[in-house]
Amino acid sequence: MPDEPKRIVEAFSQELHAAYHKAGVRSYEAFAARSTKINRAMHSDTGKHTFVSRSAAYKTLTGKRERLPTWDQVAQFVRVFRAEAADRGIAPDSVGTMEQWKAKYEAASARFWAAKKAAASRIPAMAAAVPAAFSDGPQTWWRAYADVVPAWSERYLNHEPLSHRITSYEPVYVPGLLQTPEYAAAVIRLGHGDEPEERIARRVELRMLRQRHLERVGERPCMWAIINEGALRDGPVGGETMRAQIRHLRSLGRHVQVQVIPAGHPAHDATDGPITLLRFPSSQFQDLVFLEHADSALYPSSEEDLAHYLHAVQKLGLAALMPDPSRTLLRRLEAEI
């Protein structure tokens, strides 16, 4: 990771770590226990909560992440710090208010992504290694939805229908290509809740249109999806929507292989964000790596980067349950939610 993004992540982690000590949190185990208690209370009120495990807390507070945590995760840290401080007779505001941490996070996030984009601009563009048919051309199939397509996702949308193998790792959500309409709408509202329902519906329609790529007759692509158990057990949607989504995952055909990383496995929190790799029919075409974030994306394209992310998803696949045990876990999760 370039020095500047690394420095920004470490500086933000140091601020969180200082608040952790100021609140008097005894250990990472105590943090995880308090986080679970807060989640139960929030779940009963809103049906939503954020999963932050002991290992995720350790990585975040010690600056061992490659990227900043999500705002939902930071907000959970702040809730834990304030609750722990109050229990010890320490003024909760001394560890920071939610508004103060939101401002700190937004400032750090802006600096981080500016630094990452500056570093990415020095990497040769993928188009130089890919024939014209695979290059970033004009809007095509998604033209009618251009108003809900951010510029940073155009490259991916142009290439996805050309792929014959899709590998996806998702730590927080079900991959978009495998989402039900109801689940997709709920997830989209998390980031675009202030938009009118018609616009939310257009975003859902676009996501459903993308899924036609997996339903093609003849040269149907294969997909390998690796999903954290936390994304299924503690997903940010209501119970019935989550159960229907899990049923959908169980019903997928043989061309889609779903593997679940158990919540207790160290790899469950080993990667900071989603990773998608597209492979094309001919080996002469370079794979595409897509690292999506809330309001931006990166397309690492050097040979070193491609090897790194391929190795990363392979390690995650080894950590995940095999397809049959994964289906068993999915069945159990559906019954428990």
UniProtKB/TrEMBL annotation:
Positions of the DUF5753 domain = 154-332
Q: Name one Pfam family in it.
A: DUF5753
Q: Which domain of life is it from?
A: Bacteria
Q: Which InterPro entries match?
A: DUF5753
What this protein is called in its record is DUF5753 domain-containing protein
What organism does the record attribute this protein to? Actinomadura syzygii
